[in-house]
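Quick one: co-fold with flavin-adenine dinucleotide.
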Amino acid sequence: MRLDARPIAQSAGPAQFVQILADPVGSPYLRRPFSFLRVDRDAGWFEIYYDVIGPGTRRLQEARPGDAFNALGPLGRVFDPPEGHLLLVAGGVGIVPLAFLAWDHPERRLSTTLLMGANTATRLPDLDALLPADLVRHVSTDDGTTGHAGFVTDLIEQHATPTTAVLTCGPHAMMARVAQITAELSLSCYASLENHMACGFGACVGCVVEYRESDREDERYRRVCLDGPVVDAHGIVW
Ligand SMILES: Cc1cc2nc3c(=O)[nH]c(=O)nc-3n(C[C@H](O)[C@H](O)[C@H](O)COP(=O)(O)OP(=O)(O)OC[C@H]3O[C@@H](n4cnc5c(N)ncnc54)[C@H](O)[C@@H]3O)c2cc1C
Ligand code: FES
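Sure, here it is.
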């Protein structure tokens, strides 16, 4: 879905998200968070890509050209990828913020590899539509209907170099496994979290994640919407 919103599009950066009041009748106080897929800062639009799962995303699906939505953003911190080879590990709609990173950093694409996992071929999104054509990608399906037969995490070791940084987004269990594997391989790893959110800007404390080590008890939990959504995957409790 493409939305015209010049102020949001002009300042949106990789991993940030937008909160859309998608279900103003059913839940007027709860916006729905969506990662940016692509932005055109000159034209003033941004795109999102979503799974339809409840009333908010159903309302978005029913939208017609010209409909207006109240949107708040960009929210969260911009993720600045470290130098060197980047391995993007995606599951489901977790591909969205990773695709945006690739769109927004064309100079990094030659040193970036995407691994995309799904349980079966029909659950894979149309990667050609979502990704820049020059981004190298490898696919896996749990049932072997296309690509590697098995989990996407099986592919990490063969596509990583000793200096690769891994960025992952997808189901919790997948990201936890990516964190575990990268720790074993001594690779840095960042996760773009999709915790349930209410406000999206730090006020409700509804999105916290627990950090492993913190000197101060009051810093043990951090807000994903403000401190993330990208976090050091080795620093949090999965
Ligand atoms: C930072 C961030 C970025 C996101 N980016 C995307 C994206 O690019 N594309 C996309 O499809 N979705 C994305 N999501 C998830 C999306 O916000 C939810 O799917 C959406 O809010 C569901 O709204 P709904 O009204 O359709 O369903 P609801 O009625 O709100 O929820 C239906 C079901 O989905 C569950 N659910 C609600 N919110 C979430 C959530 N945040 N994570 C997991 N399950 C949830 C509920 O527990 C419930 O079981 C993102 C979430 C976050 C926090
Ligand atoms: S969603 Fe309210 S504090 Fe993060």
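If it helps, Residues 197-200, 202-207, 223, 225 surround FE2/S2 (inorganic) cluster (ligand 2) (CB under 6 Å).
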